[in-house]
Fold:
Amino acid sequence: MENKFKFVLGDIQGCYQELRQLLKQIDYKRNNDIFCVGDIVNRGPESDKVVDFFLKNKVKSVLGNHDLHMMALILDIGKSKDKNHTLQKIIDKKKKLDILDYFLKFPFAKIIQNNMKKTLVVHAGVLPSWGVKDILAANEELTYSLKKDPEEFLRSMYSDRSKRISKSTNKRNRRRYLVNVFTRMRFISSNYKLDLKTKMNKTQIKKYKPWFKYRHKSLNELDGIVFGHWAAIRGVTNHTSIKGIDLGCVWGGSLAAYNIYDKSIITVKSKK
Structure:
């Protein structure tokens, strides 16, 4: 099935003015076909305006870690986890439950198919051992659990302990691990243990490498993988089929739009 999406937007994180400028650059009104790599909100100054734009124009995205945190705060969960958030205007909105319902429709992974090409969009990454069926199964497992009981899912997702799983891992810790893979992963070991503390572009622990440095089974079926989350690398992966598009707009970098047809990138500089 063909998707209408042409551009995938990088991490917006509440940078509404840059979003508006980028949409003009890609002629959004004529090409109403954008998708987002997640982390729509938080850290930037106008998360409420970004969310209003998404709801008004029915823009879709995969879920990022900051989006999940916003959803938790709407349900009065996780306040102690991030005291420096910039989400209060969203939390105070009368329509905050409508916002929650809208974000509950977002997946953790999305395959966009255009002109016989398949591009996977995720926020942080996927495991090298996963084929497309594994990615879709993990996504379905998480989205089903999130929609079934949002409060229980969001309350139990905060954990750095679920860095690795095995056949004996219980359901809750498996779910935490999958959330961490899709929304927080950067460095992993050869046996897929996650390093969730290192956020820069290098790690001092030799057994860990960026997740995109491994051979990925899914690329036997996909034409490419697009991800965000890792602003410190400024999109550089040195991989022809895996592209990072979080260019750190909220940190003074740029906001990016990735054209999945020709793999070009359009950017606008941060106003910060």
Observations:
- The CA atoms of residues 254 and 270 lie 5 Å apart.
